[in-house]
Amino acid sequence: MKWEGRRQSKNVEDRRGMGNTGKVVAGGGLIGIILLLINIFGGEGAQNLTPILEQLNQQQQSSATPAQPLSEKDEKMGQFVSTVLADTEDVWHKIFEENGMTYKEPGMVLFRGSVQTECGGATSASGPFYCPADQKIYMDLDFFDELQTRFGAKGGDYAIAYVIAHEVGHHVQTLLGTSGKVRQLQQKLSKAEGNKLSVSLELQADFYAGLWTHYNSKYLEEGDIEEALSAAHAVGDDAIQKKMQGHVVPDSFTHGTSEQRVKWFGKGFKTGDIRQGDTFAALN
């Protein structure tokens, strides 16, 4: 992605160099992986982190992380994600204005280890997520190494851009009222039916990531789309379940299959039309 020397967002708060104290999962390991799988690309599912962590209290210990200076690589990564967020701001302002609405920009918090949000406490194991209560995206950038080494994505800067655009998609859903309607409906449905709505919500965020890429295509470089599609494929529910448990349980899907995620990102990218993103009708 062509990003160097361009505008960076003013809505990024970088906490990576700050120390933190508090409870973390003892030893990380398996519990961290489980939380990552539950909340990967978690959207509003990040709100479920707090009760899960509370249930694991007996396996937690108090830990302090000292402040650490940012490396040159850290600094460059911060500049990159700030540029990507700025690009999402430009695109979504344009789309909202074309439809007679005003876009409110989300914030982004970069952190290491653990973080406190209006949706509760979270650790790096949650993966990138969006908190609707404070309308901020939270990211531990070390996640992208996990995405490549543990889940088989190709890596590359556009895999990161895709994740950011997906989380911004959840912000768009909050602004449009889609997320709120889904939460209300889920309270009246069985778990299996509620999961179907969660899948639709996640696939629509993938569609919005593709839509953003369509509008932002002047900055694409060779291989960028392949990087995004590889990331989308790697985090499909079926791909994760096959890797972790050896079999697939469709009723437990909350984010969509690899094929669905790739399909909806591609549809957003190819059409460039926000009206084509009704993932809820498509799954009925």
Automatic annotation (TrEMBL):
Topology with respect to the bilayer: Single-pass membrane protein
Keyword tRNA-binding: no
GO cellular component: membrane
Keyword Chaperone tagged: no
Keywords noted in UniProt: Hydrolase, Membrane, Metalloprotease, Protease, Transmembrane, Transmembrane helix
GO MF annotation: an example: metallopeptidase activity
Residue spans crossing the bilayer: 21-42
Location of the protein in the cell: Membrane
One GO-annotated biological process of the protein: proteolysis
Record Pfam families: Zn_peptidase (PF04228)
PANTHER family: INNER MEMBRANE PROTEIN (PTHR30168:SF0), PUTATIVE MEMBRANE PROTEIN YPFJ (PTHR30168)
Protein name (database record): Metalloprotease
Organism: Flavobacterium piscinae
